[in-house]
Amino acid sequence: MLRREFVKTLAAGAAAPAAERPNFIVIYTDDQGYGDAGCYGARDMKTPHIDRLAAGGARFTDWHSNSPVCSPSRASLLTGKYPHKAYVPQILFSRPGFDVPGLRKGERTLPAELKKLGYRTAAFGKWHLGSAAESRPMAQGFDEWFGFYSGWTDYYSHRYYTLGGVPVFHDLWRNGKEEFRDAEYQTEMLAKEATQYIGRQKAGEPFMLYVAFGAPHYPMMAPEKYTSRFPESMDRDRRMHCAVMAAVDDAVGSIVAAVEKAKLSSTVIFYQSDNGATREERADHAGRPYRGGSNAPWKGYKGSLWEGGHRLPGILNWKGRIPAGLTPQGMGMTIDIMPTFLKWAGGSAPDGVDGMDISDWVLRGGKCPREIAYWEYEGLGAVRRGDWKLLENWREGLGTPAERGLWLVNLKDDPGESRNLAAAEPKLVAELKSELDRWKASLPPETLKPAARPGR
Questions:
Q1: What is the mean pLDDT of residues 420-442?
Q2: Is 17 helix (H, G, I), strand (E, B) or coil?
Q3: Does 411 score more than 90 pLDDT?
Q4: What are the structural domains of the chain?
Q5: DSSP single-letter state for residue 349
Q6: How many Cβ atoms from other residues are within 10 Å of residue 186's Cβ?
Q7: What is the DSSP string of 372-430?
């Protein structure tokens, strides 16, 4: 954008009245890799609505989930805490008894805090933060909920199933009551619910809407109207992955259109994937390591602490406040959303929140507030300070064996994390390892213990 337009937008952001309380829409996708959107470099995937959302606001190129898997990532989004402090450090089970504990009773979540400020709240889509009564959406601050508790469901039958073990069970609910919508394509169904909710809102009466699509997670399914957008000559799995994402893109377009139609001018839209694209065999049509999703240009997959497991598409759009075409320089994380949104709503983050307010960074072109970040998952650890990142144990992704040791990389010089500099930089390794150990010591000890592998 032109410099005078950029400065004008920054000034508007700085001068906006404190009493203005925006609406918040959070769009969360499932297993979408960094390279699974046109605005993040995909040349074989068409995502015009996501691209437009990014062009109209901030497109982060160094944005990270706080976990390389689904449940912990979502816990960090809604609590502003590292997942261990929210007591959701690993993937939660999916069970037909709907008795899986997740978020704890009394957890101070983003929707619960916004309700105290007069916001209406609703969640549609994948929950996966516990199906026990105290962990369900309406017990965690949402006024309305439509969706499923499990890690995934079939896109048409809305049933959860695995290859042996857990029995097949139906999982689709509205405010605690089971609802059957067989044969409705999940992504379109959730978009319909979201747009209808937006259409019922009134200007001046703020709301938070959380739309958690189950796509592009396994099982890979899309109607012909989406697959036909991509040539049959494409790799079969990549073509289906692109089609599933095309449905998500259309859904994003319908949500933005609904906001515009309702004339809800002060609306913040945040878009992120929960973790990187997977390499799990179950997603591949022939049972091979899946390569339909793309984490390019990063290394690793879902379940890994290489960049590909947690470095994600991250988009923040607030028309008239966040400058269009902004590419913030610096590192942001999912936990930063809660304190930032609460400030914009006129409140403040509760005690214990790990996230940082990024208002100055995205509204006024200030310095990125985050200098260090940590990750831990299933005995894998990582710490990043500036361009330097230290991994303690590593693996390619879920289902692959872990290698033990320390791996040091400079992401500026080696974004592909291909060269281990640990032997050449022993002092830096010791510093970063001490930082990582200090952080892990601050976590509840029981959250660092290995757990049985749940259904994903």
A1: 98
A2: coil
A3: yes
A4: 3-13+20-371 (3.40.720.10), 373-448 (3.30.1120.10)
A5: P
A6: 25
A7: EEEEEETTEEEEEETTEEEEEEE-SSTTS--EEEEEEEETTT-TT-----TTT-HHHHH
Q: Cβ–Cβ contacts within 10 Å for residue 258, how many?
A: 19
DSSP state for residue 109 in the 8-state scheme: -
- Residue with more model confidence, 200 or 453: 200
Residues assigned a catalytic role? 70, 128
Q: Is 225 helix (H, G, I), strand (E, B) or coil?
A: helix
Q: Give the integer Cα–Cα distance in Å for 273 and 30.
A: 6
Task: List % helix, strand, coil for the chain (3-state, nearest 5).
Answer: 30, 20, 50
Say what the alpha-carbon torsion angle 81, 87, 92, 93 is, to the nearest 10 degrees.
-160
Query: To 5 degrees, how large is the angle CA 370–CA 299–CA 34?
Result: 65
Question: pLDDT confidence of 20, banded at 50, 70, 90?
Answer: confident
Residue 19 pLDDT: 52
* pTM for the full predicted model: 0.94
Q: Which residue has the tokens 């300070």?
A: 385
Query: Quick check: bond before 454 cis, omega within 30?
Result: no
Number of CB atoms found within 10 A of residue 359's CB: 17
- For 205-239, what is each residue's pLDDT tens digit? 999 999 999 999 999 999 999 999 999 999 999 99
Q: What percent of the chain has pLDDT over 70?
A: 95
Check: CB of residue 276 under 8 Å from CB of residue 295: yes
Nearest to 111 by CA among 208, 212, 211: 208
How many DSSP H helices and E strands does the chain contain? Answer: 11, 16
- Please tell me the distance from the alpha carbon of residue 19 to that of residue 371, in angstroms, as a whole number: 31
φ, ψ for residue 421, nearest 5 deg = -100, 15
Confidence grade of residue 14 (pLDDT, cut at 50, 70, 90) = very low
What tokens does 144 get?
């309305």
pLDDT at 3 over 50: no
Confidence of residue 451 (pLDDT cuts 50, 70, 90): low
Strand order of the β-sheet with 120-126 is 177-178, 173-174, 144-148, 120-126, 207-212, 23-29, 267-273, 311-318, 58-64, 332-333
Per-residue tokens: 38: 């046109």
